[in-house]
Write a structure and sequence with these properties.
alpha+beta; four-stranded antiparallel β-sheet; two-stranded antiparallel ribbon
């Protein structure tokens, strides 16, 4: 089967299949194809880890914004309608949904990442040992990590950690200004989260959620950053490989996407499928932006 390297122009008319692809090279050998799969394969290998982290990040951002969003909703209707109507119930749903999703995403990220590292690299590999050591270090050093980690077990198996959503009103000229703070009840946690009861007992009666959730997310971001860093040499090799591809495809438009096609080009039979192999440049760029974001957050 013939193989050629070329590109897909994002600005082309995608309703016309023959206009999608520009192939410029002679046939690519089996050895060149093996090299491509070996080098570009690191992205496919890391993709499940990246997906879990981005799910975690999305749920964290939703939790981070829930207070301000609810404050805006309450401000529209005022205090009395808020307590008298269904908005009170919907507020409870929104808060519980946001916190539960974040805690579950965090737990899924931790457990799936640990299992996947063992499966991909080996249970006794450098990656597995280093990940577990860093995980234990972060757990021992961060109260936010310990609190949220055990809060997930409590919220899943026993009770919602948020019973009442307190709404505070402050007179501001001719109207009230409302504010919400997500808080955990210390006495309730003391009864059911015994592993860290001493630490919980030293907290305020009302424990703010967001500062500890932010600390937990920073810790999990460090774990993700560690994992990506273990593949730094392979990622650097891929970036260098893509730089060579760009030189080969020197006339490729800036917005085009390089591919390797397997099959007749241009297609001679619409019923025959043409396989396109991506160089995953967009994923590399996204991964680089994630790493930079984690670095700035932990700086």
């Amino acid at each position: 089967m013939a193989r050629r390297i070329g590109w897909i122009d994002r600005n082309e008319d995608w309703s016309r299949p023959t206009q999608k692809m520009v192939a410029i090279s002679n046939d690519i050998s089996d050895e060149e194809m093996r090299e491509y799969r070996e080098i570009v394969g690191v992205i496919g290998e890391l993709r499940p880890f990246i997906v879990d982290y981005l799910c975690l990040e999305r749920d964290f951002l939703e939790l981070q914004e829930v207070e301000s969003k609810l404050e805006a909703e309450i401000q529209k209707v005022g205090l009395i309608p808020f307590h008298a109507g269904s908005l009170s119930l919907l507020t409870q749903v929104a808060v519980q949904h946001a916190l539960s999703n974040f805690l579950i995403s965090a737990s899924s990220f931790l457990e799936r990442t640990k299992c996947r590292i063992g499966r991909v690299y080996g249970k006794n590999s450098t990656q597995a040992v280093g990940f577990d050591e860093l995980r234990q270090t972060l757990y021992s050093e961060s109260f936010g990590y310990r609190l949220c980690y055990h809060l997930r077990n409590f919220s899943q198996h026993q009770e919602s950690p948020l019973d009442i959503i307190p709404v505070h009103a402050k007179a501001d000229k001719d109207r009230y200004k409302f504010s919400i703070k997500l808080e955990l009840d210390r006495e309730k946690l003391l009864k059911d989260i015994r592993k860290i009861s001493d630490e919980v007992g030293s907290q305020l009666q009302k424990i703010p959620v967001l500062p500890h959730a932010e600390e937990y997310f920073r810790c999990l971001s460090q774990l993700f950053h560690y994992l990506i860093h273990t593949q730094a040499d392979r990622i650097a090799r891929l970036i260098g490989y893509i730089a060579v591809v760009r030189k080969v495809l020197k006339n490729m438009p800036p917005d085009a996407v390089p591919f390797i096609w397997e099959g007749d080009f241009p297609p001679t039979n619409p019923e025959l499928q043409v396989k396109a192999h991506s160089f995953s440049i967009d994923e590399i760029e996204r991964l680089a932006s994630i790493v930079m974001s984690i670095r700035s957050r932990n700086a």
